Each structure stands twice: as C-alpha cells, then as structure tokens.
Amino acid sequence: MKRLDALRAVYDKLSQRVVVTIMGAVAAELQSIGHRPNFFYLQHAMGLASSMGLGIALTRPELSVIVLDGDGSVLMNLGGLTTMARYRPKNLLHIVFDNESLLSVGGFPTATSTGSDIAAIARAAGVPRAAMVTSIDDFVRAFDEALAANELTTIVAKVEATGPSAYVTDLALLENRFQFQRYLARAGKA
Amino acid sequence: MPPVSTSSSRLVYDALKASGVRLISALPETWLVHLIRMAEDDPDMTLVRLAKEEEGVGVSAGAYLAGVKSAMLMQNHGFLAAVNGIVSCAQLYRIPLLMLITHRGSFGERDPWQTEGGGVTEDVLRALRIAYQYLDQPASVAHRIAEAQTLAYSSNKPTALLLCRDLMWEP
C-alpha cells in the first residue's frame, strides 16, 4: 500500500474533520491532494502531533479529530500513547503510517523494521481499539469502523517507503497555523 | 508530607484560574503536589497527566489553537526535557505557552540530584529568549501570573514563571 493512495481513499471523509499531521511525506502528500483550512501540518517537533490532537480533542469534544502520524514520530513519543489511552477521547482517531523507516532523512530503518509492533504497543498502552492493516480496502474499512465506533482508535497502516520528490510546499508554516486556528474558532459555531 | 505550602499553592492556583486557564498539563513533583490536587478536584479544570513533559507542549498547543487557555506545571528538569517541543512547536508556530517551572536545585536544596539542573535553568531560558520571572513571594503571585499570561498572548510566545523555594515551602 502507498501512503498517497491511502490518503486519497479517505480524503473526502476528512473534509468536516480536524486533521493534524506530522512532518515530511504525510504533510507533503496530503497537500498534494489538496490543502484545506482544517488541516494542520506540524512540520517539526516529532512525536507531538498526537499530543496536539489530544489537546484539541479534549478541549473540543464536539469536533472529530484525526491525527496522521508516522512510525518514526510515534517511536519518539511512545509515552504519548499512554497519555492518549489514559484520557481516551472518543472523538480522536490516531492513524500511524508505518513505512518502517525515517524516509525524509535518508530512509534509515526504524525499530518497526525489526519487529516492534506499534498496534500492539498502542493496545498494551490502553488504547481501546487498535488495528494493523496492509491494504487500501482494509485501511478504509478500519477508518470507517473507527469513526462509527466513536472510541479512541489507533490504526497502523503499513505503507511502502516511498514519498514525494520534495517536502517543502508553498504553504508557509505560520499561514497554516493562523488559518487552522481561525477554522477552529469558527467550527461548531455555525 | 514535605513542607510544601498549601496557602501559596492556593494563591498560584487561583491566579491561574483568574487568568483564564482551563487546562493544566503536569508531571508530579514534590513542590507541585497541592497544585496538582487542586486541579484534580476542580470540575472546571481539565488536568492532563503526562508521561513526559514535552507532550505537554503539544497538548497546550492543541488546546490554544482550539481556543482554550492552558498552563504547564513541571519541574525544571522537566522543562529541560521539553526543550525541543518548546523550540520546534511552540516557538516555531508562535504559540503562547504559559509554563510554571519549579526552581529546584537552587539555594537551600537538600537533594543532591536536583542541584545540576538548578544551575542551568535560567541560562537555558535566556538562551531560548523566553521571558521569565520568579514567583518568590505571595504578594506578587497574582499579578505576575496575569502578566505572564498577557505577554504570552500578546507576543505569541512562551513565557515562564519560576516557582521558588521561598514561595513554595512553608517557612
């Protein structure tokens, strides 16, 4: 499975939800499909996208929050899984694209390439629902089931270690941040 | 029970509430026991217990963008553990971030393991160009917390208050 294809498969379902992504390929590929004001790309601070998603989900329970994470980032903040699990907001869906490598910095293998299982770690951390998927069909099914279940879910999607040719886009970091904040200020007040 | 001041903790907590804080992220530390219990007992406060302090930067950034004022409670060693999050999330994205940091390892410290961090905390704050002040006497707690929150929001930057022994310990 290619991450870009997985993103395309659920893209339309992201339109009314709050999306927080990590840096690198995920951010660049989602923007290549089409940026929206409800998408925030945390372009550094590896590991903290899930913590940001938790902060939004806890303070705005009326919003549906989706975090698009990666194996390298999750491994930098494994403790964050226990914090997410502790508060288990029902409105948070945590998706981890696992390409078993640090793609944007040379493709060096991460520990998931030697057997560390993020879905199992999430489950053991206390995340109520966790799954690992390896095909687009299974990914879309797990995505839909997680939203229908209305319970904190971590979906680990095994993807190929391929990415875009460039990571810098024409969306400035601060432009994205202020636009996203404005979106959140208006969301739910209509 | 350590001689941590309940009355000073109450002053700090009430000032945080008055400045609009509705979410507190924290890692336990002796000087913070009363503050954390107060947050725990307050139905109008969301308390997020962290595994490591850097997570709190992400939680606070999310809460801020979602329109909720927050504060981080941590030991100075926790602040040192959170530095990359402060730089790569809060500073890069111009997030107001109110940090209350216990200033362990300064004059009067009895625990040998706290002493190294106490000597570098202010240098690191200065190196990061984070505006900070001491909370060292009850009389100035309320207005310093209010002013730290005001500056954080007007500058879109982190600000810090160092919780000092003179305030946090019973005399």
Detail the topology: elements first, then pairings.
The complex is a heterodimer of chains A (190) and B (171).
Chain A: H1 3-10, E1 18-21, H2 25-34, E2 39-41, H3 49-59, E3 65-70, H4 71-76, H5 78-87, E4 92-98, E5 101-102, E6 108-109, H6 118-125, E7 129-133, H7 136-149, E8 153-158, H8 173-186
Parallel strand pairs in A: 1-2, 1-3, 3-4, 4-8, 7-8
Antiparallel strand pairs in A: 5-6
Chain B: H1 6-18, E1 23-26, H2 33-41, E2 46-49, H3 53-65, E3 70-75, H4 76-81, H5 83-91, E4 97-102, H6 115-127, E5 131-135, H7 138-155, E6 158-163, H8 165-168
Parallel strand pairs in B: 1-2, 1-3, 3-4, 4-6, 5-6
Helix pairs in contact in B: 1-2, 1-7, 3-5
CATH architecture label name of chain A: 3-Layer(aba) Sandwich
CATH fold type of chain A: Rossmann fold
Averaged pLDDT of chain B: 96
What's the arrangement of strands in the largest beta sheet of chain B?
Answer: 2-1-3-4-6-5
**What separation lies between the terminal Cα atoms of chain B?**
15 Å
Low-confidence stretches of chain A: none
Query: Reading side by side through the largest sheet of chain A, how are the strands ordered?
Result: 2-1-3-4-8-7
CA radius of gyration of chain A is: 15 Å
User: How many distinct domains of chain B?
Assistant: 1
The gyration radius over C-alpha positions of chain B equals: 14 Å
Q: What is the CATH class designation of chain A?
A: Alpha Beta
Largest interface: A-B, 36 and 31 residues
Structural class of chain A: alpha/beta
Largest sheet of chain B: 6 strands, parallel
Portion in helices of chain A: 40-55%
CATH architecture of chain B: 3-Layer(aba) Sandwich
CATH class wording of chain B: Alpha Beta
According to DSSP, the number of beta strands of chain A is 8
Question: Structural class, from secondary structure content of chain B?
Answer: alpha/beta
Mass-distribution shape of chain B: globular
